Amino acid sequence: SSASGRSSSIPLEAPPSSSRHLEISAPDPFLPHQGRRPRLIPSRSISIRSSESEPCNFRVLFRSGPAPSGRPSLLQAGDAAAAMSKSGALDLASGLGGKIDKEQVKSAVDEYEKYHGYYGGKEESRKSNYTDMVNKYYDLATSFYEYGWGESFHFAHRWNGESLRESIKRHEHFLALQLELKPGMKVLDVGCGIGGPLREIARFSSTSVTGLNNNDYQITRGKALNRSVGLGATCDFVKADFMKMPFSDNTFDAVYAIEATCHAPDPVGCYKEIYRVLKPGQCFAVYEWCITDHYDPNNATHKRIKDEIELGNGLPDIRSTRQCLQAVKDAGFEVIWDKDLAEDSPLPWYLPLDPSRFSLSSFRLTTVGRIITRNMVKVLEYVGLAPEGSQRVSSFLEKAAEGLVEGGKKEIFTPMYFFVVRKPLSE
Questions:
Q1: Which residues are marked as active site?
Q2: Where does the record place Polar residues bias (predicted)?
């Protein structure tokens, strides 16, 4: 399509029959123009329509001017409630692939998928190539995460009446309180993503937080977000592998990890590095992704769910809660307390991904929202705004969501096995 208003039809998945007109508004999109390099055309929107006679065929129109007054789009409603940091379709498109050359995204997806058991890959290969696998995963997936979830890429214990965003903040504050963070402390966030928890914890506790991350794209994004909220001088990012940290012994007053060290090929080695850089007498707190005692490795359904979660989340292997606790002991830590916080969460942690529920506050995660996103990515890839392979990334992330929901309902998986441990004063 071009600025002149010409349109083309692309076969897309129809939303539920109750929604025959859906509009996706994206501020300041880049649109192809007369075969040349995409140019900026402000105040455009994408309308996706279906007719009763053609329920699975949408017309995609690029139209100038604001969205029709008095009829906000569903995505706009979701944005207003969730206050997502990447608000538009073109923000999503511009970030797809991360630092991977846009022409190489499809081949990167091919290579990433081959690592995983869902496609016949082996655990040994994932562990020996974990740096490449995890970097490809976050280059491919980060924009989808930020578009759908916000800046903090994690689940949370959740109370009745509490929004997803509120629960995520409380989850982060809970960790900070368990570490007894105080103003002036020097803190390390291991596997910090784009720094959502880092910024929240730094502001909540008045501490200086360093984010450790091995992905260039996420660090670039995180630094920009730090500057935007005035934390550029007090919080920073370091690019490094958490199996080989570039810090001196006994550097930090506290260390935490939120759903990140599950990417480590060897938990003992990872926890030993954390132990090394933590000051004696100080604490490490972590939310770990784990399989529970309900998991049966001989159950084909359980194995499929585990494979789906590993594929859609860049994991070499999902360890059990028992394995994680033993690994942190083997690294030299003293266990203060541990608990699977999913066990007594009033609302299920997987609720935002459950296709049977609907919420405006996290609209993009609902069934209708995911259909819209899926179709939108298809459109963006078709018109050349998103790189080839973007639909496949969307697909394996949806597969992961299905596995997470099923794993949560069967109580064979938890994303919030929490423990606080201390490095002894004397070794």
A1: 259
A2: 1-10
